[in-house]
Amino acid sequence: MKAVKAAVIHKRGALEIRTFPKPVLNDEELLVKVHMCGICGSDQHIFRGDWGEPYPIIPGHEFVGTVEELGKNAAQKHGVKLGDKVAVEMILPCGACRWCKEGFYNLCVKDREEGRQYGCNISCTREPHLFGGWSQVLYVPSNAIVHRIPDHVPWHRAVLTEPLAVTVRAVHLTPPKLGDTVAVIGAGPIGLLTAVAAKAAGAAAVILIGTRDERLALGKQLGADEVIDFRKEDAGSRLLELTGGRGADLVFETAGTPQAQKDSLNYARKGGTVNYLGLTGNRPVTIETDNQMTFKELKLQTSFLSAWGYQGAIDLIASGRFPIEKMVTHEFALDEAEQALQCASNREEKAIKVVLIP
């Protein structure tokens, strides 16, 4: 393969297929043949230009594939060999700034200065161009963090590594204690996978709050003990009923809407914890801090990206404990990238997780 095909968002709301030269590797670099890449809510924000994206950009950060080519020392550097199934962490940390050295490499200073997130904030004008998963091939530099995926794991499970890693990080930051009731706000892919991670971490009960019958039903298969459709009943009242009038010990907000972030504070018990995973696309959130937080002595945590979450996600996926592959409802070829994005954005045909197969 001398030329590599990729889907490119070249301006706000516009996508096209382009070809790029296959990169020539330095000693500690490698190339990954992308087998599957999920479409995320962040991709929809990027398509709309919500965050001032550096167009043109190859989107896609939920990618998995196989090692196709290795630089002279890359196998030793990254602990992989040709043909291995791999996931590459979506951030390329500098390793030298204060935040990287303190373990917060998801907050790397260089990410803010120049863009270090695959598929999110690296323009494809930056050589060697292939910094997104909506491509046949992914370029992996020496500072990338590469994880092997066990051979027995099918692609439809493996493709959920990055979003599950996001939820594993969140659960690591605010782990449930013995006997805790966890409420998860939002029944999208991140919400469903948060239910998985919370249950795997030992939550006594997981209550999933969202909409759409098919998503809530799947949530029950993925670890939720109770589900609440807030369009059919008052979620706050039902949650109090399920918790003996206390509220949830721990609330994970994954929906990324201002209303969900506000409501999540009401769902937590006095002295409880709320963790925001959802991104609002810079929409403002109005919170009554006295009544919703201070008078309840709530603890508020946020969680960003997936640092330190990949290996736990891979282990959980490889265990086969939860049937997460049922989340993958739609597949599209790379040439159908815009159609795939529309399917995910509009939730066409009860779509949950839409994937591209480059």
UniProtKB/TrEMBL annotation:
Pfam families: ADH_N, ADH_zinc_N. PROSITE patterns: ADH_ZINC. SMART domains: PKS_ER. Its cofactor is Zn(2+). Keywords: Metal-binding, Oxidoreductase, Zinc. GO terms for molecular function: oxidoreductase activity; zinc ion binding. InterPro entries: ADH-like_C (IPR013149), ADH-like_N (IPR013154), ADH_Zn_CS (IPR002328), ER (IPR020843), GroES-like_sf (IPR011032), NAD(P)-bd_dom_sf (IPR036291), Zn_alcohol_dh (IPR050129). Transmembrane segments: none annotated. Belongs to the zinc-containing alcohol dehydrogenase family. This is Alcohol dehydrogenase.
